[in-house]
Amino acid sequence: MDLPLSDILSAGHLYALTGAVLVGLGLYAFITQRHPLRQLLAVNVVGAGIFLILGSLGRGPDATDPFPQALVITGIVVAVALTAFGAAMIVRQAETRAAAKPAADDNARGAS
Amino acid sequence: MSPLDLLVAVPLCCMAAALLLGRAARGLILLAAPLMAGLALWLALLPPDAAYLVGQWELPLGILLRADGVARLMILATALVIGAVGLHALVEPPEKPGHAAQAETFWPLVYLLWAGANAGFLTTDLFNLYVTLEMVSLAAVALAAMGSLAAALRYFMIALLGSLAYLLGVALIVARYDTVDVTLLAQLAEPDLATLMALGLMTAGLLIKAALFPMHGWLPPAHAAAPAPASALLSAIAVKLGFVILVRLWFEAFPAITGPAALQVLGGLGAAAVLYGSVQAMRQDRLKALVAYSTVAQVGYLFLAFPLVAGAIDPGDAWAGMTLQAVAHMLAKAAMFLAAGLMLKAAAGERIADLGGLAQAMPLTVTAFGLAAVSLMGLPPSGGFTAKFLLLTAAIEQGAYLYAGVLILGGLLAAVYLFGALAACFAPATTPRTPVTGGLRTAAPLALAGLAIVMGFGGTALVELSAIAAPWAGPALILPEPAP
Amino acid sequence: MTFAFDLILCLMILGTAGIALFVRDALAAIAFFIAFGNLMGLTWLGLDAVNVALAEIAIGAGVTGVLLILARARLLALGDDATCSGTPLWLRLGALAACAGFVVLLAASVLSIPPESGLDRVVAPLMPGLGIENRVTGVLLAFRAYDTLLESFVLLGALVAVWSLAPAGAWPGRPADPGMTDAPMRRVAGTFGQLLLPVALVMAAYLVWAGSDLPGGAFQAGTVLAGGLLVAAMGGTIGLPSSDRPLLRAALVLGPAVFLAIGLAGIAAGGLLVYPEGMAKALIVIIEYTLFLSIGVTLALLVAGPPVPDASHPNPEGKG
Fold first, then answer.
1. Which ranges does the record mark as transmembrane (chain A) (predicted)?
2. The CATH number of the domain where A22 resides is what?
């Protein structure tokens, strides 16, 4: 089955457009979310959108450019490295806050 | 063998060695500091066309490393700053008391920052620059987290956004031009929508990293709260890579696209940063917050220089002024943070009002702070004076009196807040102060501040050095033939 | 693949991303994020980018997903459920307008660029000189090996950065036990781990080997190894090591260091990362095997987090 849309929009452009919308969605979530963990998730969605733009615009009629593919793999690894550090910082911050709280006033909560 | 690769490889070797050596790794700086300084000097003395392709893979696929004047000066200053800060950190622990993890991880992070900064200054490849930008950001956030985790987390989030904006711009460039090399883009670039969008995104991302007003919000809390050696590295080096990449983009890859209006926007933000940063610095009552806001102001000068470089008939002076401003700030600000760290250790508290009695108790450290202040204010003789004088001349020649006014006013405001801090050191102490001095501890800030002053005597040589392979000087670099 | 399939896939990607970003409950958000990552992997398959598909599913969805789940669990133990919080309406409206405008500009930019595999023509004639078939591996470990070398140090640096967060009194120590608190689950994970670890090792080794000619490579393989190590650790089959163990340090540094050493040895042949004539494939394979081991261990420890004072549990410890 074929849709008329496919005449004006190549698969490469369709995925690149999806990437652009992902970037926008992620950015909106990054701005409107307060929790750092949710912001970190939003950043990863933005990253995935950028990678999709990068890769799909290298999609020629008979081959996909290996150059942007390699850049995407490098980008994915850098992204996970940063996400790991960010997640660790978020948890540490929550831990120090939880540790400071019972010291300040005596109604210790939730912290096991 | 060439310093172009060793300047990156040696700090990476040190980082690996530091992880293997564990707690014994701190001594490594005794070896690394002189070695890197030697390599940086070697780089400065290379012939003007020094460049090579990594792995001998040609453009547009490969990665070109090149030693232009900006790279030579920034790498030399980086070697001096990290060398001195490292030696200082041997005797003056960079960690919070009791944090053994910070004491040990400080060293590999410093080497990561060093390798990333040098790699970034040398490469002409926009994607490679993304990787180096992340090396520097990662190390910088981790160093900032040694002071305040909350400030570091904020820095991290905003830096992440900046990285992604830059990466998105690079992605559009890859798709549009099938290359990410600055020297090739200089020949290929066209002012179409995709290119403009890419340049806008990369610029926005890098301005966040360089902390130009109004994207500076993350900087003062992070830089003020970090331990002094970490603050010195953050203010001196971490914000400079974003600036250098912007220089590469605006003056080398896309000069045909960056219209005068856009340049005036950058210049205007720079001028606003000078004024805003200075006024905020005056309002601080904590010493390190004052020094951190001074960075916001000093970064402003770098961008105030953009329209002056682009508008000059012979951009040599403005270009040198911009580059030397970066170098002078690196030396002076690192000196100032180290000195401030020592002063605060001896002082009654962390406020400027607590500094009383220090001029008598630790005169050499206060001298270091004072010499650094002279350069930051732009008083002669100093590197800061040379830089601001060159910029001022360029501004007056072009009839850009507004920028000239900001250059003069910025110096006056800096004088007000820095003299204020110095004067506090001469106030009588309420209780006797135990000085924190001796050996490398005092020598490091004093040497850095001294260098910032000595820079003022090397004017002509430094101006010539900054002009090596400069984009406005024509194609000095003979490029290998690009693959068909 | 037909256009209809592409279109449905894109809509599903946007749908899962939307839920992952805006659903209230954090665990649901992460679950949809993982689903999103897997759909992205499918997309990369559709784009004939199998190497990226493997990396996206293993790292983008897998490791990142586990990282987020673990972080969320640790936050929950501290009474922080990481739910969406309401932001003021003006902020949401402003952000919506700004983001919508941005997407329109970005979409127009993207549409102005014709999708082409321009550099494939440059890469293809260079491949015979390397002696390997996989062009992406060629770009990663030869033409752009410098990027990859620096990136391997970024990954190592991230672990150092995570370690730097260890609270006072925790150093040198072990990361918090990622183990199942539920006894039957722990037994299941234990048995599974005993089985999975050798399988993961073999599979990963194969992925590296295949990476020369078929899709695969050090990063994808390293992730498989990390997954095996983590499941084994969750079931208690292996204990997570103390951060100062010399053997651990050596394992972490091995890959980047060998890569750097080979790069520096290239100076004798003409410059950094120059592979001497005829030796490219052998050197690439050496780099990939050592790198994969280090990446596996690094990723596993990145997920585990910084050392904690008491090796048994993630306590909210007192600060120093």
1. 12-31, 40-58, 70-91
2. 1.10.287
